[in-house]
Amino acid sequence: MITSVDDAIGEVLSRLRKSGRDKNTLVVFFSDNGAPFYGSQGLMPIKVGENASSNGVLSGWKGNLLEGGIRVPFLMSWPGRLPKGEAVSWPVSTLDLTPTFLAAAGGPPMKGADGVDLLPHLEPKISRSGPDRALFWRFHTQWCREEAVRRGPWKWVSGSLTKNEPALFNITEDPSEKKNLMAEHPEIAESLQKEFALWNRTLAAPQWTTLQTQPPKK
Fold it and tell me: Is the pTM of this model over 0.90?
């Protein structure tokens, strides 16, 4: 699968170069979630480590909101517009793509979007801090309830891997999320939790339980 993806992406980029459109095309590549950990959940009859994926030093995996579940590869290419070979240390979201694409196409600023236009933070030079905003996650399913919010280096998270108790991490200093700083910085944890609560109230309640109990349509 990885080889096929690599071949296909190479073909797309090659055709863009041959057509002369590469310098007028913004290409983005990213993964949808962190590496799975099938062996721990009994989802597939394979052993841990045999699914050809790894989250490295990051804690967690696909299906939870620790960094191993939500931090993924994210690459952007726009020859002549974006600097080559640079990396940013601040977080971005796939929700940023629509406002960014709209701006790249010369459209007006997108109002009411959950994401932001990344271009002002990437050109003419890379921003040191990135957008000033909080990022939110809510993952409520029949098997778990995960919630998280991140602002700057700070991340508040609650879910199955934190024993459903809130935890606070400094992602910049502790990307593995090993040291819970709730006791040391209760004011930061409280502020992030309040931000999450305000954001959460703007969303519809999860409907999977209701849908699951409805009789099938004939």
Answer: no
